[in-house]
Amino acid sequence: MCSLFDADDDAGLERFIAEHGIHHPQQMIFGRRRRPTSKISIVTARHGEPVVENAIWHLYLQRDGDGWKPHKKYWSINSNWKKLGQRPEYRKSRCLIPATAWVESQNGKNPVEFTFGDHKPFFFCGLYKTWGETLSCSIITLDAHPDTARYHEKSFPMIAPDNEEFIARWLGPDEDTMPFEPYLHADKQIGGARLNVQPVTRATATEYIGPRQEV
């Protein structure tokens, strides 16, 4: 389960987005330890071209006066890959979520921060929904990698390969999801950068209590 992540521009995230031909990178919401139910930035191509938009990190919303808020009955910050075939969003409303790190812990204990290389920017693969003018989203989670199960035994977020063809297809309108099947497994390497882990004082903190090491 991915429930905290960084979108840190010190790692060149805005440049990374622009290099992938995504419009309006200046609309990015930056910050460390982005939390569920908050506003985060996602990339969609729902109007044709890939563009940065802002969404509530909680896929299912409910009415709140004239607006929308996270639905009380459905905790939906993540979407498990095993249920993707049941979700129309997987066929029609896929998105990418720019990030530079994420945090995991085993039963709330011994939290660690995951990064690729020296905080190489990357995209989570996600789903989005529209609620009038409001967008919501979730991060797709896969089974844990054998080498990361000791940090979180249940899951690993789906990371987009640093591949223009994949990104274009993921954001595109094609409802055939079969080409994504080979990517529904945890990968410890993105664009030549290997996965690193570093312990932190607590999940929401940015203070480290040990060295960063390759997983």
Tell me about this structure.
The protein is mainly β and 215 residues long. The protein has one domain (5-214): Alpha-Beta Complex (hypothetical protein yedk fold). 9% of the residues lie in helices and 39% in strands. The chain contains 3 helices and 16 strands. It has helices at 13-19, 88-92, 164-171, and strands at residues 5-7, 31-34, 39-44, 51-57, 61-64, 67-70, 78-80, 94-99, 101-106, 109-116, 122-131, 134-142, 156-157, 189-190, 193-199, 213-214. Strands 1, 2, 9, 10, 14, 15 and 16 form a 7-stranded antiparallel beta sheet that branches. Strand 11 (122-131) and strand 12 (134-142) form a beta hairpin. The radius of gyration is 16 Å and the shape is globular. The protein starts with a strand and ends with a strand.
Structural class: mainly beta
Summarize the main sheet: 7 strands, antiparallel
- Number of helical runs? 3
Strand tally, please? Answer: 16
CATH topology: hypothetical protein yedk fold
Under the CATH scheme, which class? Alpha Beta
Helix-residue proportion: under 10%
Give the total of domains.
1
CATH superfamily: SOS response associated peptidase-like
Give start-end ranges of low-pLDDT stretches.
none
What series of H and E elements makes up the topology?
A: EHEEEEEEHEEEEEEHEEE
End-to-end gap? 18 Å
Query: What CATH architecture would you give?
Result: Alpha-Beta Complex
What percent strand? Answer: 35-45%
